[in-house]
Specification:
Elements: E1 11-15, H1 19-31, E2 35-39, H2 45-52, E3 56-59, H3 65-77, E4 84-88, H4 93-102, E5 106-109, H5 114-138
Parallel strand pairs: 1-2, 1-3, 3-4, 4-5
Length: 139
């Protein structure tokens, strides 16, 4: 079985208006070796994603879930395939289902432990990387 070694630093685009919460997440991800790009607003997010080409977008917004879901739909409608993880202050099945159907890759509560958040992010990036490698082999 082949071992995959990644030499590229993985970049996470963190979108959150609450600087205290954003800094805590950024510190956790930085300690785990991720490069962080901060965004304090959602306007022009598609352009920001195209410019920075992150490995994953982490939306941790305190706004209504409908806004977050609209952002995911906007990214997907623009053809942006970057993985999206949503951190929500609370969770219910209907919101989580709607977000996942809109194209989010994970929907977690903001109270998710840093260790589990990092594990989700690493797993999603790894899965996307393996899919890209398979496409390169097939083509």
């Amino acid at each position: 079985m082949a071992t995959h070694t990644h030499f590229k630093t993985q970049t996470v685009l963190v979108v959150d208006g609450a600087s205290e919460r954003r800094k805590a997440v950024e510190q956790t991800l930085t300690c785990e070796g991720f490069e962080i790009v901060e965004v304090h607003y959602t306007e022009c997010l598609v352009g920001i994603v195209e410019k920075h080409r992150p490995d994953l977008v982490l939306l941790q917004l305190a706004t209504q879930s409908s806004t977050v879901i609209a952002i995911v739909r906007l990214l997907r409608a623009a053809g942006c395939g970057v993985p999206v993880v949503i951190l929500s202050p609370d969770i219910d099945d209907a919101r989580a289902n709607e977000a996942l159907e809109a194209g989010a890759d994970a929907f977690l509560t903001a109270s998710t432990s840093p260790r589990i958040l990092v594990a989700h992010i690493q797993a999603i990036i790894r899965r996307v990387g393996f899919c890209a490698e398979e496409l390169a082999i097939v083509v």
